[in-house]
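STRUCTURE:
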């Protein structure tokens, strides 16, 4: 069956436009409550990021859950992975996160975690969608759900994160810039790193409801690159709005992305004899990661884009390390979803153990130049079905010798699962070649 409302990461869109409206959120809470109440505990954790629309959607979800007889436990602003963690430890029916992750403030979304702290299985999302087609039926007054605040949610999660860092190590002597993207981790991430001994320069930690991801965080790296150089910091850690993505910056101001982080963690795990299986990347993962892991004898597979698909591959293969170049990094031996703070701590542990700087650790993974162009489209257009686009791709792949034993690059086109965008990616031996063919195909997509 095809999902009507749920995308690759829950329900997402512009606030005020269906389905990100208070009436839909109320009914979604009710529908989810109806499905989830079959499991027994009748309690759901609700967290959110710092968007101003979070207040509205939180209240609507709470009302819907109550009508279905489900109790809501409200955490306030807290990272997405924190909701996953608390859902599991509280033995809750599910966790709900109100966030549009890396999107601008005027977007928002609603995503769910199962009682195990993992993304909801497709069959559960389909069951919720089936309930959405029905009229709301409120339970009797004596069975209505209640709501309460979890006052110590941030503190609980801070202690969990610190517990994933080796107790024999300390961050004393390190100067770290932490960019919180004016998002959900603004009051959490700086505390984690400072309590482990680091000198922390926090930026992007003054949310006002409108400035989440605004020229800061993991999707806009110029600010933290400048701050690392100006403060002569050892490195920088950039989170996105809901803190499930991480990007880093070395001491020279160079960006270190999710692929490079995966390489650093995989290589150290191999040295320590703790690597279980191989590494799961995505269709967007840089070929440089694949080549570097192959030299170490580490298996590598590509999943569809989206951390839920990375997790599916990890579970299927029994592996524990995977992620996306955009910064979703999953250490499955520690967490049940992408967790920026936990991933950062694992990289910091490698740095402290090895005595090597971040730039030294990533030097063994040469990146293949990659150009990504986003083309916005609307309505019912299907540009990827156009002969104009298909011919442009064929032309590019012939030039890159795709399909031969020694390809010079690759092309990837896909629809975004979270925004009305066609993502055009070209990867090649040279930056000029990647730019040339990315622009060529993007122009074809625009024309279509």
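SEQUENCE:
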């Amino acid at each position: 069956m095809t999902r009507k409302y749920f995308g690759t990461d829950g329900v997402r869109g512009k606030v005020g436009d269906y389905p990100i409206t208070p009436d839909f959120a109320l009914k979604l809470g009710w529908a989810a409550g109806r499905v989830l109440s079959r499991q027994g505990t009748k309690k759901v954790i609700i967290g959110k990021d710092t968007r101003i629309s979070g207040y509205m959607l939180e209240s609507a979800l709470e009302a819907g859950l109550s009508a279905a007889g489900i109790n809501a436990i409200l955490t306030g602003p807290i990272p997405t992975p924190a909701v996953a963690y608390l859902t599991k430890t509280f033995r809750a029916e599910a966790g709900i996160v109100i966030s549009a992750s890396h999107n601008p403030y005027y977007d928002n979304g609603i995503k769910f975690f199962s009682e195990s702290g993992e993304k909801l299985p497709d069959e559960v999302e389909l069951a919720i969608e089936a309930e959405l087609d029905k009229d709301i039926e409120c339970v009797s007054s004596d069975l209505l759900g209640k709501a309460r605040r979890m006052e110590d949610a941030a503190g609980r999660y801070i202690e969990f994160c610190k517990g994933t860092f080796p107790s024999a190590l300390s961050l004393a002597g390190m100067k770290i810039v932490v960019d919180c993207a004016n998002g959900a981790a603004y009051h959490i991430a700086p505390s984690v790193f400072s309590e482990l001994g680091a000198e922390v320069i926090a930026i992007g930690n003054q949310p006002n409801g409108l400035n989440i991801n605004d020229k800061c965080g993991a999707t806009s790296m110029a600010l933290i690159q400048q701050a690392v150089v100006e403060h002569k910091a050892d490195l920088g850690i950039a989170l996105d709005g809901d803190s499930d993505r991480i990007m880093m910056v070395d001491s020279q101001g160079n960006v270190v992305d999710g692929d490079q982080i995966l390489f650093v963690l995989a290589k150290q795990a191999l040295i320590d004899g703790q690597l279980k299986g191989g590494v799961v990347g995505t269709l967007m993962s840089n070929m440089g990661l694949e080549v570097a892991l192959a030299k170490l004898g580490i298996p590598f597979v590509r999943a569809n884009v989206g951390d839920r698909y990375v997790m599916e591959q990890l579970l299927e293969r029994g592996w524990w390390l995977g992620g996306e170049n955009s910064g979703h990094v999953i250490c499955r031996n520690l967490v049940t979803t992408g967790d920026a703070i936990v991933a950062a701590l694992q990289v910091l542990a490698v740095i402290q153990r090895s005595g090597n700087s971040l730039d030294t650790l990533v030097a063994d993974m040469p990146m293949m130049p990659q150009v990504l162009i986003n083309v916005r489209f609307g309505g019912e257009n299907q540009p990827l079905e156009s002969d104009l686009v298909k011919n442009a791709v064929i032309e590019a792949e012939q030039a890159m010798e795709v399909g031969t034993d020694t390809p010079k690059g690759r092309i990837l086109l896909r629809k975004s699962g979270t925004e009305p965008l066609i993502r055009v990616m070209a990867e090649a031996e040279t930056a000029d070649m990647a730019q040339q063919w990315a622009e060529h195909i993007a122009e074809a997509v625009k024309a279509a």
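REMARK: The first helix runs from residue 22 to 36.
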